[in-house]
Amino acid sequence: MRKVLIGITAFSLILGSAASVYAGAVVNKTNWSAEYIRTMNRNAATDYADAAAYNPAGTVKLQNGFTLNGSLQYLDKDYKNRVSGMDFKSDKSSTFPGVFGIYKRNKWTLFSSFTFVGGGGEVDWEDGNATTMALGAGMTLLADRTMDGMVQAGGGPAAPLGTYYGTLTHQDIWAKSYDLGYSIGTAYAINDIFSVSAAVRYVDGTIEAKGSVTTSPTAAGAALGGTPQTSKVHFKQDADGWGAIFGVNIAPNDRLNIGARFETKTDLEFDTSVKEDNNNVLPQLGIVDGQDVNEDLAPSLGLGVSYWITEKLRAETNLTLYFNGEADWEGLEDDVDTGYDAGLALEYVFNDTIKASIGYMHTETGIDPEDMTPENPELDADTFAGGLAYAYNQKFHINIAVGYTAYRDDDFVSDTTGLKVKYDKDITFLAFGLEYRFM
Fold first, then answer.
1. Strand intervals (E) in 326-409
2. What number is the average pLDDT over the span 342-349?
3. CA angle 362-368-374, nearest 5°?
4. Alpha-carbon distance 179 to 207, whole Å?
5. Residue 365 CB burial class (10 angstroms; 0-12, 13-18, ≥19)
6. What are phi and psi of 29, to 5 degrees?
7. Mean pLDDT of 404-415
8. Does pLDDT of 16 surpass 60?
9. Number of domains making up the chain
10. Most buried residue, 99, 144, 219, 232, by CB count within 10 Å?
11. DSSP state of 28
């Protein structure tokens, strides 16, 4: 019994860290703007106001005046868990906005942004998943052995496992996770080549999950008066914290631009509030009302190089490193390697009005499948995207983009429950962005 409870606890603690959308970190996210979706590479950006988040030191390359940029992304998600031959699915979509503002005056800029810097949106496993299967296995074993003990106490013989309880007749789980980032900072052009930036960022995080599992008696159990046993749980966790962002931009000439951005760790200590727990299951799973759980945003380093191959064709390559081991994730960080995103984009300028781009990004998360979040597994991935930018005039610009992330499925056999678990997911995404320049 103790071994089963430890297994359930492991699944439950993982539940608290709903994560990856398409980024190489376990918690951190970088899909902030339509311009990013159009290229998947923005660490050397100097053309639109989303540079406030991707290449803040490069904001000095924009025109004087105030620029406001807003994006909306729609994610069509297809998530799957296969547990010992049984398939479970969640197709709950998510929508993410992003807002960026820059005021530039000669060598100085003041910039700010609102982005989703962590979390994975919402998932809804209407028929359960790996988490509920693990919880149900523990519930079924407990109910079965409890009735077996009653039979033996009445003088009856001991029975094999599963004699009295052995069927899960209902299971579901819903979860969401959002880390909202609000940043403000300034950048300064030292000369035509070098510029630097510094910013602070406030992060407001929310994690919420609820679900239920019902185990029902076998014919033998029902004959002895056994009834369905249901556990319902609902808890919420909230946290906030501060971090800093530093940037450098280097533009040796008109064709080459290099951007770098370092984000410090943001300490996030989530306070737990239990909303429902009809069978007092959560304390056994390590989730206690009023408990604090650490799930920091890991420090990261974003590097980008943009180069104009011709007057109309630009290439950009990016590398973003996520130092997952430096975060505090209640010990999970000890089993996670440094994650990264690496990509390449090509952008072609047709005329003063229209330009098009395609982009690719490869993601390595650095986490083993047995440590992943069943609700939103942090799988390695390849992302392909493209889109158009349209300049209605010098002040008003539009970006539209579409992309697809193909995750690399992974599987493992649980050391505690013996269940074979396979994770698989795919995301198709659309993005739309508007920018207005008050020149």
1. 339-349, 354-364, 381-391, 396-407
2. 97
3. 95
4. 9
5. buried
6. -130, 150
7. 89
8. no
9. 1
10. 144
11. B
Q: Which of 373, 375, 343 is nearest to 358 (CA)?
A: 343
Q: Which of 371, 372, 356 is nearest to 424 (CA)?
A: 372
* Beta-bridge partner residues of 170: 214
At 21, the pLDDT band (50, 70, 90 cuts) reads very low
d(CA 34, CA 62) in angstroms, rounded, equals 18
Q: In the prediction, which pLDDT does 1 show?
A: 28
Beta strands in 133-228 (DSSP E): 165-189, 194-217
Lowest-pLDDT choice from 20-29, 238-247, 333-342, 426-435: 20-29
pLDDT tens profile 291-327: 998 989 999 999 999 999 999 999 999 999 999 999 8
Please give the single-letter amino acid code of residue 326.
Answer: E
SS3 285: helix
The position carrying tokens 């339509």 is 34
- Placement of tokens 């606890």 in the chain: 9
pLDDT at 15: 40
In the numeric block, which tokens belong to residue 240? 């906030």
For the stretch 249-273, what's the b/e string if a residue is b when 16 or more beta carbons lie within 10 angstroms of its beta carbon?
A: bbbeeeeebbbbbebbbbbbbbebe
The Cα diameter of the chain in Å comes to 90
**3-class SS string, 90-154:** ECCCEEEEEEEEEEEECCEEEEEEEEEEEEEEEEEECCCCHHHHHHHHHHHHHHHHHHHHHHHHC
Is the distance from CB of 394 to CB of 437 less than 8 angstroms? Answer: yes
Domain range for 105: 2-438
- What 3-state class would DSSP assign to 232? strand
Report how far residue 66's alpha carbon sits from residue 14's, in angstroms, rounded to the nearest whole number: 43
Asked if 287 and 281 touch (Cβ cutoff 8 Å), the reply is no
CATH of the domain at 32: 2.40.160.60
**Cα-flanking dihedrals φ and ψ of residue 122, to 5°?**
-115, 150
Are the beta carbons of 322 and 303 closer than 8 angstroms?
no
CA Rg, the chain, in Å?
Answer: 25
Lowest mean pLDDT among 9-13, 267-271, 338-342: 9-13
- CA–CA distance, 340 with 323 (Å, rounded to integer): 9
